[in-house]
Amino acid sequence: MTDSTTASTPDIEISRRRLLGTVGAAGAVGLALGATGGALVHSAATDPSPGAPGAAGSLSSLGATAVAFEGDHQAGITTPLQAKGHVLAFDLAPGAGRTEAAALMRRWSDTARRLMAGQTAPTEDSGIALDAGPSSLTVTFGFGHSFFERTGLTARRPAALDPLPDFSSDRLDAQRSNGDLWVQIGANDGLVAFHALRALQKDAGEAARVRWQMNGFNRSPGATASPMTARNLMGQIDGTGNPKPADPDFDKRIFVPAAGPGPAGHAWMGGGSYAVVRRIRMLLDDWDKQSQAQQEQVIGRKKSDGAPLSGGGETTPLALDKLGPDGKPVIPSNAHARISAPAQNGGAAMLRRPFSFHDGIAPDGTPDAGLLFICWQADPLRGFVPVQRKLDRGDALSAFIRHESSGLYAVPPGPRAGEYVGQRLLEG
Prior knowledge:
- It is built from eleven helices and twelve strands.
- The protein has 428 residues and is of the alpha+beta class.
- Helix 3 runs antiparallel to helix 5 (190-204).
- Pfam families: Dyp_perox_C, Dyp_perox_N.
């Protein structure tokens, strides 16, 4: 099919705006995500139930929700998990440098700003998402280590972006790792997410080419009777110990302080964060051969509700010193929950915001499935690295997973009105 519909066609632009305006007239509601100045979420729903159909001629509450592009931090970090996601990296084309990178980031930011507001793309629009609202679409941009060499900005590359160390359990595919530019797309509708992916790919033009792309999913909003922590493809509740925006030290752990650290030339990262991205394949056939009791010993938590084996509910703190009748720790010494606990890692913490993936069945009949692990922190040397080092040395879960790709990206702060992402770096 050809893209025969363009953003300059009046009835297309009016159609989406009319749809949004119809539900907006019912009374828009703004909800701030935590106390961190994160993205503002607008919901034009009159029916409070998640995903409930709207009145005739209006969008459902699920489709009408929009996330602001501007803000102290980029959207897609503290934004609630979306049902669909695309994660991809680009390399700048041979000969492209700082000028081309700045023009590309300006185009990408313009497109993301419009699509996240439920509008059509600024250039030729494929028409994929014409009938939908923004559906909580977020687009997040980051820069890899190699980006700074390609653009002549190595003096402004922060030390926190130094390459991650090697881990003994890594089985990394270099072609699916790293990259000059990183893009994360999330939405609660698959067509809206793909529409953004397609628009950004076309915007890249001659300036950059896709290095790798991965597609993910999560449980859809409203699929459970009440909101709950997501499960991964092993069936485990995943994300219980995540830092919360209401925590007094949340900003300190997740976002780079405005005043540093580092020389003044690195101030462009103030309010930004660092994303570690890992494609972790789960050896599901091996996992499924374990009894539920064995799986719980590996994780250190109950499969039914995520409660620690030491007792209580999902959010009950781990009682790491509790012993069983046999005199052994109730939470095994090599349990994943024990080894990754902040208390076992000098308080190291990161905000995990993953997607699951399934890329078909391998020739040997095993599912190519697992976790697109994405974690956020103010400094990966104090967040991801120390935790992964400990997991690498003795995590019982290591026998059932395989780290197949990896990337680390500096994610600048959110743009101001009229600004593009990374402008403070590229024009500073």
